[in-house]
Every structure is written in C-alpha cells, then in structure tokens.
Amino acid sequence: MIPDVTPDLCPGAEVPPGPLLAPNPPAPAKNPNCKIMTFRPTMEEFKDFAKYIVYMESQGAHRAGLAKVIPPEGWKPRSTYETIEAMVIPAPIMQVVTGQSGLFTQYNIQKKSMTVGEYRKLANSKKYCTPRHKDFDDLERKYWKNLTFVSPIYGADVSGSIYDKDIDEWNIGHLNTLLDMVEQECGIVIEGVNTPYLYFGMWKTTFAWHTEDMDLYSINYLHFGQSKSWYAVPPEHGKRLERLAQGFFPGSAQGCDAFLRHKMTLISPSILKKYGIPFDRVTQNEGEFMITFPYGFHAGFNHGFNCAESTNFATLRWVDYGKMATQCTCRKDMVKISMDVFVRCLQPDRYEMWKQGKDITVLDHLKPTEVSSPELERWRLDRVTFRLSSPRPIDSNMKKQQHLWQNRSPNFLAEKAFNAAVAALQPHCAVCSIFCPYTKSTLIRLQIVQIAAARLLTGAPRTSHITPILSTVTPTVPTPRHGNLTRPLVPEMCFSVGAGTTEPPPTNCHIGDDGTSLLIRCSSCHMQVHSSCYGVKPDSFNDSWMCSRCVSRAWTVECCLCNLRGGALKITTDNRWVHIICAIAVAEARFVNAVEREPVDVSAVPETRKNLKCVFCHGNSANQNRGACIQCSHENCATSFHVTCAQIAGINMKPADWPYVVSVTCHKHKKFMQKPTKPIAPKGPQGPTLGQKVIGRNSDGWFYHCTIIGMATQKYYEVNFEDGSYCDNLYPENIVSHDCLHNGPPEHGELIVVCSPEGQCQNASFIKEHPHNFYQVEFQNQSQLMLKQNEIFYLDQELPKRVRARLLPIFMKINSVMFDWFLNYITDFHSDWMQIAQFIAIFFEKMGVPTLTYCIVINGDRNFGNTVLEVLCIRLTLRCHYLE
Fold this sequence. Notes:
The chain has 884 residues and is an alpha+beta fold. It has 28 helices and 34 strands. The strands form nine sheets. It has a ten-stranded mixed beta sheet with strand order 1-2-14-10-16-8-7-4-5-12. Strands 28, 29, 30, 31, 32, 33 and 34 form a seven-stranded antiparallel beta sheet that branches.
C-alpha cells in the first residue's frame, strides 16, 4: 500500500493543529527531508484559508512541493452529488501514451461530449474499469506496466464548480487570495486559473509531470469516487528533473524550453530513483485536499471513476516565482499572467528596476510565505470588490452579462459601461454589431474595456496597466470615435423588409455618396451608432445629442423581444421599447418609418415565437420577460435563442436574400459547414514528401536537383472590398471581426472587417480560403531555401520548356579555366556542332553528369551552332565563378 508520509516533530505523530493566528516564521530547518506532510485542521483553523496556508509553510510543507489537508469531520462542500449526472463534459480527451522503459509521451485526442452519467458508465465498463489488485502498491505496478494499453478517456478541464453556494470554508470558487488581483485589477477571467475546473477521471487517466501555470499554487479537492495517486519532486530539486527530462526528450527540449508545461512527459519512479532525483508519493482519498506549492513538479493518476475540483491561488511568496517562471512560447493557448500589477502593488520599491530588467531575484525555496505585508494591506483597503461575472455556468458556453439581465434591478451605470465598451470594438456601432459575432478574444477585450469604462464613470482611479494588457489580447487598432465616418454593415433592406413588404427599400439620405455614415454617440447612455442605422440626420448631431430612450428619460425600460439591457433602443407602436437589432432579426417586427427607424410594430410577432426557449438564458425565471426567439436558418434545426443572447454567445448572423432579412447559423451547424466532406482524390502523387529528391528553383533563377527537408502550409484568404477591389493573399489574423485562427474561415459571402498592418479598417465580404504549401529544400552545395509548390518539379515528370532551358543537374565544381581550355581544345579540331556537343557530353560524363540531361540542354533550342555553344560556355563559366 502506498503510505501517506507524514513527517513530524515527533516520529509517528501527526502534524499538530495550527494556532488561530499564524506564528512567526520558524527557522527553515522544518521538514529537512522534503517529505509530503498531512494536516488535520480544526474547524476553527479551517475557516481562514490564507492563514492556514501560512501555517503549513511554517511547518515546512512547501519544501516537498505537495501537501495533504484532511478537512474537519462533518465538513462537506455539497449536500448531495445525485444531481450532477446530467452535467455535460464538453470535451473529453482520450489519452494515448507511447514509450517504454519508464519514459513515455502522452497525446490527447478530443472526443465527443457526454454527460457525467454516460462517463460514469463508461469508466465502470469492462474495458475501462479498475483491474483487480491486492493493494495500492500492486495497483501502481499495474499502472506503469499497462500504461500504453487501452487509452483511457479523461473528462478534464470542465469549467465550473459543484460547491454549494453557502459554503464559505475553502470554497475553491472563492478563495479570496492574492490571485484575485488579476480579475479585480485587470478584469481578466482565466478559466481554471482564477476560476474552478472540474476533472472526471477513470482508471489510468493521468496528469503528466508539470508545475502550475506561472508556477502558482494549486488546490485540488476530491469530491467523490476512487483515489488518486500523486508524485512530487521538491522545488529545490526541480531543476534536476528539468535537466533529466531534457536529456531523455531532446527533440521536445529543442522545440520549447518549457516543454514540460505541455503536460505530455511521463517519467516513472524507477527512472527517478536510478538518476537520484528526490521524490515522494501520496494517495489522495475521497474528501481530501491536495495543495501544490510554487515550482513543485507533480504528476499522478486516478485509480478509477472519480470527480475532483481544482484551481490556482497565490501568496506573497509566489510573486518572485511568477517573475521568474519560464514560459511556453510554442503554443498560443498557454497561460501567461502579466506580473506588472503584482510588482507595482506589492513590490513598489523594485517596480522601476523590474520594468528595466535590472531587478535581481533569487528564489529561496526554503523561505515560508508571510500572511500579509504593508503593501498588500494597502491594496486591500483601496481595491474595488467588483467581479465582472460569476464563474461560467457549467451548462452553457455563453459569457453572460448578468448585470444586464432584465430579471435584475435596473442598473443604468452598468448599461453605460457596456455601451461604452461596445463602442470601442469593431464595428463601433451598436446596430452593425449584429453582423460581427463576438469571439473569445473579443469577449475578453469587451470585459476589460467594460471594467475600465465602469471605473471612469464612477470616478474611480484609472489603473495604468489596463491598456498594456488590452494590447496583448488583441492588436491595438485606431478606434474610430463619434464624429468619424465609417461604412455601415447593415443593408438598407434589413429595415424595410417585413410583414410581406415587397417594395424596394427607400433611399437613405443619411448615407454619403461614398457609402459612409457618421458615428454618433448619446451623451447620456454612451450608446454609439451610425446616424443612418439610428435614423438621425448627421447635421443634427452635437456633443449633447441624446438617443430616443434618453430623450424620453426612460432609464429603466427594457427590450420587449429579449432579456438583456443596453444597446440601441427604439419605441414601439404600443409604447414599449425594443432593440434595433432585435427588430431587424425577428422577421415579424416592422419599422413603420424605415428611414427614421421608428416606431417599431411588434404586434405581428406570433405566440409560437414567444413560446420558444432560448438555449442560452433559458428564460425560466418567473419574473423574466420571455421575449421572442429566432432560430437557426439551417434546414430542420430547431435551436432557438434571443437575438442579444446569440450575439453575446458568438452566434453567426449575416444579411440574407429577400424575402428573409437575417441568416442565422448556430454553433453546431457552423462546425458542420466548416468541415465539408472531402472529395475523393484521384489516385496518384499526393504532393512531395519529406526526403524526396526533386528539381527546385534556386535564388539565382536556375533549377537544380535538391532534397525536401521540411514542409509548411500557409492559409490565405480571398476577399472583396466594398470599393470593388479584391485581395487573394490576406492573412487570417488581419480579419478583426472573426477569430479565424481558432474558429476557421468565415462563410462564403459573410461580411467581415479587415485591418491592414497600418491600422486602416475596411469592410469586405469573404470569398474563399487558399492554402499554399511551402517546402524547405537543401541543394547539393548544402544551401537551403524555402520554395513554393510551383517552384518544385518531380524527377520523373515532363519538365516545362522554361525549366529545361535553365536546368543544371548538379552544382558544377570544375574549374572554369579547365573548362575553357577543354572548350578551346575541341573547337580547334572540330567545327561541326554535333561533334562538339558529343565531346562536351563525354566531358560531362567523366565528371559524373548524365549525358542525356546535357544533350537536352543543348537541344533545348533548335538554332544549333556556335551560338548555342557560346551560351552554354557562358552559363557554365558563370556557374563556376559563383562556386569559386
């Protein structure tokens, strides 16, 4: 049985309970053997999470890199777990392990979503269940012996918490530690780092050797199920483990200095023993906590079906670790936290030196953390306890703007902050935003701008770090403000079609001859729109202009077709209010005056539409307006959602052809449309392969034999701009209205916003994607070059005339003087071009060059004679001089 090692002051005794107040830090001699310690706090000690962590480190727990905490008897984070069977695991992963002799690499393959109930049945099935075993030692041997067989499925990284809301002690969703600075100061929510993640495991599911992101602390609670085995290497020996891994996995180490952060590397205890790497092991049982400490490498596996919850946290001691943490640079999804706010607030005397890169930090792995500092207390007094949103609901992918819900009390300040944030993002118009779905990066930026706007509106001091963090999320682009002219994305037909209207749309005098319209902003609610989208004459706009809602002083009104506040509102014929974007997308709504965009007639909206349930907000609250939902335009798809809910959730909406106004594609069918069935390719060459011998074009314009040593693919997009021009080599990252790098290309004809490297933004429509293949080749003189596919030819294919005329099968290494002597010698004795050609062919054959190839070169031009010979002489002379 794998024992729980509990080093103590007295052998055989448990760690004594900690005092209510953390004692002064003791001498760093505690736990000299760096063994994993087990703690049993009393209920009184258990109430203060931060102080107990300080106490644990005062006992030397941090020296092992891992510690176990057993909660007081009777404490439970949840009353019952029977209700979580219907929870969805959105992206389970199959863990495929390769390797042998104690050294393995783990690969993750994403599988289709399943419920917790379905996962439990799978985990307990004959194929995946825990094998029979005598004890934990026997189970551990079976784990390392069978690691590469029967790949298990891990329900990892499920965002959310299953703690009951009234639990205050050690609530993983609300630890209230130093890491809260990231959210409270910067407005950034990093899932799994400062929000909880759930992990559903089965037998043999594994977490590979790693330290936490940014070398943070972590907490892991095993809610229910089978046990979990942990291995830990003390932080003071972490560098030794890194060097060992680099030696065994040199390819991974060359590709990324921090490759252990990929969580793919498994090293068995036998290898660690063989190379003298200190480590310890412990078993986590149901109802127990595990705490990992900064730069503490750990790994482990699950004994069977279980459920754990985890997140990261920080103490004062971590700040220096965060400043020194190595970063993975090869993956875009790796977590990186700006240390600016921590150094500026907690180490103000070192801030300027740190910004200049002159701050010398020496990590002391033996020093325990402190409970507080004058700088931390000052920040706690000054901080604004403002959370942008609760952790993401486990049953939804929507980033809900909860302070804008209609079932909450009206909050005009929150609406102003939201409107100001939307105005700062492309396309800078609250109406045109209907055709620019929010992406993940856009939502992060929306949250950051929102908190900045809220602080400005409340008079709170503006933090200097918001702008640099914002610029790391999305490229900094000049933001058009009110008073600027930009092109609206909403066609005029969207305002005039409805209720069977077949008349052509009226001419909008608010749009200029060049297709642009003035951006105007309400001085009261900060809502920004095009004058044409809102139906306002451009010359009537001034700094004191107010929208219809604010002119009517209707501060608490809400849209009658959805459940969210904020945005551009217009009055209806029955004296209610409606979002312009809701009136556009709901087919039965009609603008009575299409030019002025008001009033809006919603009387034709049928009850069947009002009875549809939104998949994002559900509309289950008794005092919540049901509104009217729209549905996915894909044939036979019944997915329904409110217009504003769909916009926040990133649902794709675009203008449609008459008689429809808006075409809507839900997430399911967007993925379906992005993965068309591949046509069956005809049998034959599938493109060059690594190591293949080909003919390639060198930088001097000549073609030579070479070998392919590398391949890459670059995708370009073809778009049509509104001015009639087009571009067929646009990089995906230049499209700022869509997250193309994560979600793939837009649909054909979809409206997009393109930003040039100079910061100029234009409206365009997407045409198609062009993948371009590039090949790295090595010539016989060991020079290398990156070539396009049209610059490479196969050895057995019929070469074009332009290639044959400039083909040299090898780099000639003969001396030009020797060749000139040979050429003069044969021309003295032979005047016939055929005989000269034969002698030249014999010469090349002696040099190891195939005769046929050079006969083709000579015969490439039918004007035989001295001209051909002179040209050949010049070519070879130039080639020889080039190599000399």
